[in-house]
Amino acid sequence: QVQLVESGGGLVQAGGSLRLSCAAARRRFSGYAMGWFRQAPGKERDFVAAISWSGGSTSYADSVKGRFTISRGNAKNTVYLQMNSLRPEDTAVYYCAAYYSDSYYLSRTDQDYHYWGQGTQVTVSS
After folding, report:
1. What is the pLDDT of residues 38-48, one digit of tens each?
2. Cα 36–chain centre separation
3. Whole-angstrom Cα distance, residue 94 to residue 20?
4. What is the pLDDT of residue 104?
5. How far apart are CA 37 and CA 106, in angstroms?
6. Among residues 12, 32, 14, 15, which one has the least CA distance to residue 24?
């Protein structure tokens, strides 16, 4: 079992920035790809970004490409989502997720992710 703990959400004005963090509470976390999803009220959960275990491969939703950056910490058990130029439509609960993968392919499908954090609220005011 892998426990994921997110932090960094909050309220920000449009055009501002936030940095989300997600730490895996597991000493050995080798081989896990990690991703971020978000869910706005009344909408389905959507893919935001993903990163491979090595950090060498990343994937972004078109809606955040060029504004958001996903990265991993040196210890590989932490993932970050730097969000710049935030828009009101970015308002959602953001979830960190992970799945074991020995492939360079990064899934954008939430059903492929086996472990999930509790979510952190991001609110962007206009």
Report:
1. 999 999 999 99
2. 2
3. 9
4. 78
5. 13
6. 32
